[in-house]
Design a protein that fits this description.
This protein is α/β, with parallel strands linked by helices and 158 residues long. 44% of the residues lie in helices and 15% in strands. It has helices at residues 13-21, 46-57, 69-79, 92-103, 122-131, 143-157, and strands spanning 38-42, 62-66, 83-87, 113-117, 135-138. The model is unreliable at 1-33 (pLDDT under 50).
Length: 158
């Protein structure tokens, strides 16, 4: 795995940790509204979950984590995050529920949803956009790409 890439399923977690350590002192979001934001991550893979959390917390972003679709939906309903980053491999009913929540919550708050997936292509991109996703990250991805997308979506949402 190349330096700076996220865990991509090949088990090279030490390389991923080195790239996170290299983020120290690189504050793409400092001094912006992004720094006070709350992001919910829904991910089954503990390594990906920990990595995304570490990258975002290095930027001053408050992170909540869910390891199951059910837990993620509950947190999205009760904690009203500013952004949700989720694995695309959620069961379809839960994925649709998350997208529905992102547009129509009971207290009228909305939030963007970013999906992460190993597979990606134009047809899948159109499907995600039509379903209501705000962004996509193809695994593995650079921490800079994650931070840039998060910053863009959080600024747009405010």
């Amino acid at each position: 795995m190349a330096k700076g890439t996220l865990y991509g399923g090949d088990g090279h977690n030490a390389s991923a940790r080195r790239s996170v350590a290299g983020l120290e002192g690189r504050n793409w979001c400092r001094g912006t509204v992004v720094e006070t934001s709350r992001v919910l991550i829904i991910e089954y893979d503990e390594e990906v979950l920990a990595y995304v959390k570490e990258v975002l917390e290095a930027e001053g972003i408050t992170v909540r984590m869910a390891r199951t679709a059910r837990e993620g939906i509950q947190l999205a309903e009760t904690e009203h995050p500013d952004l949700v980053i989720s694995t695309f491999s959620l069961p379809e009913p839960e994925r649709n529920r998350l997208l529905d929540l992102s547009r129509h919550s009971t207290d009228h708050t909305t939030f963007p949803v970013v999906f992460m997936a190993s597979e990606y292509g134009p047809r899948l991109h159109r499907k995600w956009m039509k379903a209501g996703a705000s962004g996509f990250l193809k695994k593995p991805f650079l921490p800079e790409d994650l931070v840039q997308l998060v910053r863009q979506l959080l600024k747009k949402d405010r």
